[in-house]
Amino acid sequence: MPLISFGHRPRTVAATDEGLLAIGLVEGSPPSRAGPSLVAGRYDLDTGWWTLLSPPPGPARFAATSVWSGDVWYVLGGTTAAGERLDGLAWSAADDDWTYLPPAPFSPATVHWDHDRLVVADRMGARVAVLDLRSATDETTLQLVPSDRMTPAAGVSSPDADPTIGLGRGTAL
């Protein structure tokens, strides 16, 4: 398998049991007039090698957030040259294929995998949305969690904003 040398900083990274997944820009050899190419790769901690994944669709995303579920890599949000992205991508390890995810109702800043659900929060933790993949269809969207169903995290607060939202054990979504 080919070695990937990220000549530019990776744009999003997720940890797996065996290593890392990353999306980044790489310069061709020789460099292309069109600029660097968008690539995705898997880093194996045991061998120290990168292997290419199928290329992610769409334009390069900067500052996207991502999480590994054990068999699918979810990449959400970020910014492109055209502006902010609210949608996401899912890469399946089983078939090395990407699919689009529905847009979030706000700019995703962090994502958490909760068994069969993606839990997405904004930068301040004031808005949370859930994508339940157990019953997902092509029309499924990320659903906002009503604020009365969220509880502040114990002992955590911000002087400039509402208390940080906690989604720990016992929190019903």
CATH first level: which class?
Mainly Beta
Strand line-up across the major sheet: 1-2-3-4
Task: Give the H and E element order.
Answer: EEEEEEEEEEEEEEEE
Helix content: under 10%
Parts with pLDDT < 50 across at least 5 consecutive residues = 152-173
Overall tally of structural domains? 1
Tell me about the biggest sheet?
4 strands, antiparallel
Per DSSP, what share of the residues sits in E-state strands of 2 or more residues? Answer: 35-45%
CATH topology: Neuraminidase
Describe this entry's structure for a reader.
There is one protein chain. This protein has 173 residues and is an all-beta fold. It has one domain: Neuraminidase. Helix content is 0%, strand content 39%. The protein has strands at 12-15, 19-26, 37-44, 49-52, 65-68, 72-76, 79-80, 83-84, 88-92, 97-101, 110-114, 117-121, 128-132, 143-144, 151-152, 165-166. Strands 1-2-3-4 form a 4-stranded antiparallel beta sheet, with no helix packed on it. Strands 5-6-9-10 form a 4-stranded antiparallel beta sheet, with no helix packed on it. A 4-stranded antiparallel beta sheet has the order 11-12-13-14, with no helix packed on it. Strand 3 (37-44) and strand 4 form a beta hairpin. The radius of gyration is 17 Å and the shape is globular. It starts with 11 loop residues before the first strand and ends in a 7-residue tail after the last strand. Residues 152-173 have low confidence and may be disordered.
